[in-house]
Write a structure and sequence with these properties.
With 330 residues, this protein is of the alpha/beta class. 46% of the residues lie in helices and 12% in strands.
Length: 330
């Protein structure tokens, strides 16, 4: 097996490209694919400060590493979700990655700072764990980006993730979700820009990037994800991809090119006027944001000691303060 570029010994085949690559040219392929995604979808500009959502898994560490390779100023934020053992291991891996490279990593402990964990929050709010987890992550990453003055939040969603989510949304024709399923969601109404630089890379490529770059990552899936229907969608698409390489790419990017704009009206129809949460100060379409409602049901509290049901101060809502733990450079 020879590298398509240099004809030297190859270490990986990328079937949708019908090509094999040596370590040097595979890493270049990954960097080029991320750079292409950023440019094509206007995700980032030179000089942008990026906050990377870090989980300790291969995708989040790969996207952080690649953004740094491409010259972006990128810091990390890790959320400890209180998931039995798994959160401790994930946090250790994320901190080690940052410490070894002298990077800035902010850590937020959900149980310690907000008084609830994802399993208990999910049960109290009668949500599936992935729903409570996603809601908490979105709120806390948005708040951290606003507080830190970041231009964008980058997540490690890859091609496999996006194709599986698209598959599920198409099966149910969920118009609002289809209208929002883009590689970049632009900033506005108090929300930061959200970008997904890995959309042109699959899980196998991000894992190979980490192996070749010597990046240790958490291999096991989150135990709370068992039974998540998106894992089933991934399995179905993997079976199709095995027989017809490139299917996921064509499905996802074909949707973006030919159909995504058709669902823009669904997003607008669901979007009402935004105000400010009376408890934490975040933008929301209701009096109280979804995260504060979750806090109330789970018996948690805001970091400044206010209980979720308490009244705001006379001067208005108090912005959430995350009480970060800093790792790496100041």
């Amino acid at each position: 097996m020879k590298c398509r570029v240099c004809r030297g010994p190859a270490v990986i085949d990328v079937r949708r490209h019908n090509a094999n690559f040596c370590p040097e040219h595979f890493l270049k392929l990954c960097r080029d694919q991320v750079a292409k995604a950023i440019e094509k979808h206007s995700m980032l500009e030179p000089g942008d400060r990026v906050l990377v959502a870090v989980s300790g898994g291969k995708d989040s560490l790969a996207v952080w590493d690649i953004l740094l390779e491409l010259g972006y100023e990128a810091d990390g934020l890790y959320l400890g979700l209180g998931i039995d053992g798994y959160s401790d291991r994930s946090g250790e891996v994320a901190r080690r990655f940052a410490d070894e490279r002298g990077l800035s990593l902010e850590a937020v402990d959900l149980p310690g700072e907000y008084g609830f964990d994802v399993p208990d929050g999910a049960r109290a709010a009668r949500r599936v764990p992935c729903s409570a987890c996603g809601l908490s992550k979105r709120h806390l990453f948005d708040e951290a980006a606003r507080r830190g003055g970041y231009d964008a939040v980058a997540t490690g969603h890859n091609l496999d993730d996006e194709a599986a989510v698209l598959f599920g949304n198409v099966l149910r024709w969920q118009g609002e979700y289809l209208g929002r399923q883009r590689p970049v969601l632009h900033e506005g109404d108090g929300f930061p820009r959200k970008v997904k630089p890995l959309v042109r890379l699959g899980e196998r490529e991000t894992a190979a990037w980490c192996v070749l770059r010597g990046i240790d990552y958490v291999v096991e899936e989150c135990p709370m994800a068992a039974g998540n229907r998106h894992l089933g969608y991934k399995e179905a698409l993997n079976a199709i991809e095995e027989r017809s390489p490139g299917t996921k790419h064509d499905f996802y990017f074909g949707f973006l090119a030919r159909a995504a704009d058709r669902f823009a009206e669904d997003v607008e129809a669901e979007r009402g006027p935004l105000g400010t949460c009376t408890r934490c100060g975040s933008p929301t379409g209701a009096e109280v944001c979804a995260f504060c409602r979750l806090l109330e049901r789970a018996g948690g509290h805001l970091p400044d000691g206010r209980t979720p049901g308490s009244e705001p101060t006379p001067d208005g809502p108090v912005p959430v303060a995350l009480g970060p733990t800093r790792q790496g450079r100041p």
